[in-house]
Write a structure and sequence with these properties.
mainly beta, Immunoglobulin-like, six-stranded antiparallel sheet
Amino acid sequence: MSDQRGLRDRMVAGVGILFLVVSSACSSGEVEALKQPPALQPLESTTTIPGPDYAGVRLAGVGGRTRTTVVLGPGKARLGGTVVGPGGPVPGAVVRVERLVGDAAASADVTAGPDGRWVLPDVLGGRYRVRAWRAPDMALLEPQVFFAEATEARQVSLVVSRFGDTSSASAVAPDPPVVDQPTNLAFRVFRRVVDAGGTVRSAPLAGLPAELVGGQWSIVSPNPVVTNASGGAEWSVFCLAPGRQPLTVRVGELELPLTVPPCVAPAPPPAPDAPAEPPPAVPPAPAG
């Protein structure tokens, strides 16, 4: 209680002293004016710029394609069969088996045995493409495509054709040849062979003497000639009679007949223009 009274007395005394100081200052005329606060700087105006709107922007597509991993197995299907050619079974033939899923494929090569038989066990079911070849002389031009069930034992017989014979091709200009007018004859000789991947290719026969022979033809260029790096040769000739006139090229010991269109007679010359009729006579004007 005494502490509260003491605090109150001190507060009253302080107020009294402050009052005396203010009164004294006012009576003496020495009151100091209050200082002005510093002037406020005007705020800078700001403008809010909206950000870009990407709502209408279309993203470009990403190039490439999704890759699909294809496998042959393990599975419960079994593929097998034989490879045969014009002379019977083809030992040592390569059989390529491809399992197809969309544009992707998994493949395996199997070698046929002495009896031409081949087998590929423990594969998955699905769509398959199978072909066979033996370089350099045997190939299957059209592969077999089929669907194998998941547990199927599928037998596939593959019939290959023989290659390696010498072949030729020819062309003439003009086509057809015109009797008693110059004709250019182009010729190419090649051998069709099977490469290590089973593709049949044309191998040119270069550096061989080639002689053109034909009864109703006049040959006005050098004959014989030597085939160039592409197995080609050219002659300038005249057909001597209308109709089909045989032509043959001798290459070494081979005689290769050419397929040439029948010769045609030259077009008849155009008929001379008929004399123009004189204009009708104009009657004289009557005398005036």
